[in-house]
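Researcher: Quick sanity check before group meeting.
Model: Go ahead. Protein one:
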Amino acid sequence: MSMDALLYWVGMAAVAVNALTGVLDSGRKQMDLIGALLVAVATALGGGTVRDLLLDRNVFWVADQTYLIAALGTGLVAFFVVRRRSLPPRLFLIPDAVGLALFTIIGTQVALQWHTPWLAASLMGVITGVVGGVLRDILCNDVPSIFLKGELYATAAWVGALTLIGLQELGVRPVDAAWTAMGVVLALRLFALRFGLTLPALGQPR
């Protein structure tokens, strides 16, 4: 598989997964169909939109509305599947971890292809990975989890982005580097959730 094909299909999967997390989280607030779809679309497309605006490139879902259709379609299906079910409050965390891994690597690789310096490219990966979740939390009237003491989130994304860049600098094929880096993000995030790994917080006793 070429890198362009990988970016396209992984990007589509990331949009679908993040739209699902948006619907799952909006279910806690008992939103109606339109509210849930708005949360789903913001979660699925928000990070990539901010990345593209910062890179001064065509916004990906405007250039190819298939991404928008995927977000709306996934959100619509998810809404009717879960609307009558009692959902555990942390159910969205697993698909959210998958979406974080997918979008982080896509964002980093897109920035690298746009000839962005490596440090800025890694931060573009983090932005792509986490901004959708920030928008989801805001629309659900929650403090964004990235700003609260909690299990590694943006840190996992940044480690994965730097892994992608480092592997490519070492001569690893871009596609292989991308899959490896996605695995790093996902493993680190799931490991943090399982064992409660966090960074030091302000006001925390030494």
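Researcher: Fine. The other one?
Model: Protein two, sequence then structure:
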Amino acid sequence: MPLGDRALLVRYGTVLDAATNRAATELAARLLDAPPTGVLEIAPNLISVLVRYDPSETTYARLAAEIGLLANAQIPAPSTARHHSVPIFYGGTGGPDFEPVADQLGMTPEAFVSAHQADRLTVLAVGFAPGFVYCGLHAPALIIPRRSTVRAQVPAGSVLFAAGQTAIAATPIPTGWSVIGRTHMLNFDPDENPPTFMRAGDTVSLVSA
């Protein structure tokens, strides 16, 4: 679908699940591997891919047709996925919602940590704020809603939990997610190029620090 006269959005659905996210991630990988003429930016999201382009070099119709061919290609998408081990300090002042989340799930804190670390997760998207990482999806037994109130700010390194996902804040942000811990692994360094090292499609293991 067009977004103004300089961008289009390829959306794979309206609900986040593993298959929808994988389709968006794979299309973004194909586009990044061989960008069509006129493309300026390719930004995968949880269930979609944003493509910005220069209208002096291409048109919406031409670009949509080229992306359609790539989206339906019967060849494996190129993969540069890497694995990351994220050390987490659970609870304490850096994780004020850790025990309330365990209680909400009917688990002891120790059982919640074990369940939280049980599965290798996928980086579903990077965005919302610089270096902010969405990781998922957790087992259905670990799904809880966002908080009913928003914290005005949590510090960089906060480990957030909601909606079947774990997120990692790389900068101070407001959030309605539960804050279950902190990590020293920050996915943002403005002095580096690129400034982030985790990308959609990477895998993540959560471990106790």
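Researcher: One line on it for the slide.
Model: The first strand starts at residue 7 and ends at 11.
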